[in-house]
Amino acid sequence: MLAAVQKNATRGDPRSVVKAIDQFCRQKEWAMNVGDEKGCILDSVVTEVNPATVLELGTYCGYSTVRIASLLPSNAKLITLEFNPDYAAIARQVIAWAGLEDKVQLVEGASGDWIPKMKEKFGIETFDLVFLDHWKDRYLPDTKLMEECGLLRKGSILLADNVICPGTPDYLEYIRNSPRYKSQYFKSHLEYTKVEDGLEKSVFLG
Ligand SMILES: CNc1ncnc2c1ncn2[C@@H]1O[C@H](/C=C/CNC(=O)c2cc(-c3ccc(F)cc3)cc(O)c2O)[C@H](F)[C@H]1O
Ligand SMILES: [Mg+2]
């Protein structure tokens, strides 16, 4: 995938990096990037929220990191957490090829360890937008952890990938029944397939 980016994408051009990855995953080898169909929904939410602070859980190869960072205003900050060093190494190179290093802080480590340290380590008070795309059984515990750490403010947006496939049943049940969130489901398809999947957008009400 990285070779395809370095071969087919233009340095400093995030859209060409996204296109090169999508082409590779469609033609050569499927990979669990959010993909172009759900990616367009992600783009529209990022544009609407116009966040100053973004947290991404699960960088993987940096595809959604590049999509998000390419839409952020100049002073905005995207922190992305990835605990697999091999994926982190690839993602760093993908983000660099897109020319987005200044907007992205890739932290190599586990969400459970780093969410409680966001204030002291990065001077982050609250996140305007959180993109959840890591292990599906960690969406709920990490959301509760973000609440407990005071990282969500009235109006913070959570956007969760794969709420249908592979599915995040305990997260959906919690977020759709909690009086502290207003949720909306965006129906789409699993990346590079015709299988149903979707994104759940939830506003924290405080
Ligand atoms: C738990 N805390 C973590 N902290 C930091 N990095 C983490 C943490 N947990 C995982 N990571 C890191 O986040 C990534 C994990 C992504 C997981 N994603 C998926 O499983 C996933 C799966 C499918 C899928 C659908 C159908 C099918 F037939 C096969 C697969 C589709 C998708 O869009 C997905 O996102 C990375 F790998 C891991 O190191
Ligand atoms: Mg995903």
From TrEMBL:
<dbReference type="InterPro" id="IPR002935">
    <property type="entry name" value="SAM_O-MeTrfase"/>
</dbReference>
<keyword id="KW-0808">Transferase</keyword>
<protein>
    <recommendedName>
        <fullName>catechol O-methyltransferase</fullName>
        <ecNumber>2.1.1.6</ecNumber>
    </recommendedName>
</protein>
<comment type="similarity">
    <text>Belongs to the class I-like SAM-binding methyltransferase superfamily. Cation-dependent O-methyltransferase family.</text>
</comment>
<keyword id="KW-0489">Methyltransferase</keyword>
<dbReference type="InterPro" id="IPR029063">
    <property type="entry name" value="SAM-dependent_MTases_sf"/>
</dbReference>
<keyword id="KW-0531">Neurotransmitter degradation</keyword>
<keyword id="KW-0128">Catecholamine metabolism</keyword>
<keyword id="KW-0949">S-adenosyl-L-methionine</keyword>
<dbReference type="Pfam" id="PF01596">
    <property type="entry name" value="Methyltransf_3"/>
</dbReference>
